[in-house]
């Protein structure tokens, strides 16, 4: 046995990992005592509520015992399965452990949201095209009906003060103020979820949140507790693959898809039912940042997505989404083409079931008061209208309880629906009374039914008068903590996603896994996640293992071989409108105003937004300068047109602007604009230069014949920009070899 290694307490040592020393590779099964504090940790002194010392060690306030219990000390056999009426039945409200676990979780953070704390909202309108009328009786889906809406976009993991552009899932929640009451479509920008059952939601969020001893990392999944959980709880792997892709770092909220995640039930006028999945399709296209841009943006402008959304609305470039549904038969087994529709970790590929557009949403107003609207808005998947109902999806079933429970603490009582942003825009007579923050002044004396003293008011609505109807689906089964066998497939959908990506997206996915796992302290965690990747795709596993300097393991579950790639899952390969794209017009202080106006006119005529970038603010002639070399960055723009190669300005020195520290070659050009052009070239963005402005390309080492680099007069450059930006980036600038299959 090797002697114990001695350490000198006076010398600094590398930081240890967040968990116990040398955690094992496999999930531990032998009961052990709670971990002791680390040498660098010490809890608060143990005193009574009135300040008297107790003499107990600080650990006395920590968790006790070797076994999982309820808050009252009752030992539990499992915390992974909710109590249901049969494996496929609804979750039962009598599950006291689930209610305790979810209720406590819902009230963990005050006053900001436990999840989705970092959010941005906007108002708009939804107009239905009538295509849903044959499957849904909801009034707001009838042809040409216009419904006011409020949308809140958000990140999941970070706090309110975190950055917009972190790698994370985004919330995409929409409140429809319909004539039949509020309907909330509470979704994400990723169509699958980390977990299959709502009882696991506290676990995944505790894992991804900052580690509780150090409160780091902020708004990041690249740490041990997250990968410890997802590599052990392998049903998370499909969502993890999406999270490691470009989908998790959108360029803009305006270019982000939305998904309802769950399967819902629609009911038509005849009482016939269908199963549906919701999709928001942005007309601006689906587009993401590259990894270097996200890191730059987080430092340069943590409010990047919020600013971009509001700038677009202010500019009149209103973002638009089409709402679509995948419609599937409401069969007894609730399966479609072998895919379990009750499993929220599964998608139905659009090639198997196309998305049918049922209406269009336009965002055209910013909030008047961010707190009153964006912070106080609440959503609930249980806010349904006649014609839309839930299914027995075990994650959705728990969300129906959790969302309304959360608001009681966060919004200070049960009357949160009376806050203006949450208030329905139709008559409300709910017989609910009193409570904190009661703003209504109720009349009458009989808030109960039946009554005669108020003349029988409020009356119940008959089914023929469009009342809400819970679909009378049969329910039967023993009370069990089980789930269907079809839920046990944890890898094939991740394989489907990985193999549907283009080569460049695949390259980004590999880099993301390598980066994130490289940030984990514990090798056992990295090895365990590599094992999951081996079960998903051998080539991906080998590439990531190579980057980590670890051997690629053999799969324990052979990767699916019958997976047909879904082109709809790739962001690359289609074209999109260029309306609202941002073009930097780089000029010098000596550039003629007429030349600048000509460039602006060409960009505006193409439906894009020009931004004049000059050495200093103010005006050049009558042309207003939008950005200065000091204040601007490449991540703000989709393309750059250099009208004149600017000479170094007076403040182009590192002591005044650190960006001025970039070396240049050839003719002297302001180094900050050289840096901007070089970054945009590296990020595969379109670059244009006037005939006399090519010195900046030389200084930035950008070949004039490289893909996406255009030299010519402004009108000629902008014409080519409209074609280049239709694909978002110049993806063929840096060819990537296709992965082996």
What would you say this structure looks like, in words?
With 741 residues, the protein is of the alpha+beta class. Among the domains are: 300 residues, Catalase HpII,  Chain A, domain 1, CATH 2.40.180; 152 residues, Class I glutamine amidotransferase (GATase) domain (Rossmann fold). 23% of the residues lie in helices and 15% in strands. It contains 16 helices and 22 strands. The strands form five sheets. Strands 2, 3, 4, 5, 6, 7, 8, 9, 12 and 13 form a ten-stranded antiparallel beta sheet that branches. It has a six-stranded parallel beta sheet with strand order 19-16-15-20-21-22, with helices on both faces. The protein has a two-stranded antiparallel ribbon with strand order 1-14. Strand 17 and strand 18 form a beta hairpin. Helix 2 packs antiparallel against helix 3, helix 11 runs antiparallel to helix 12 and helix 13 packs parallel to helix 16. The longest helix is centred in the middle third of the chain and has 17 residues. The protein is globular and about 85 Å long. 44% of the residues are buried.
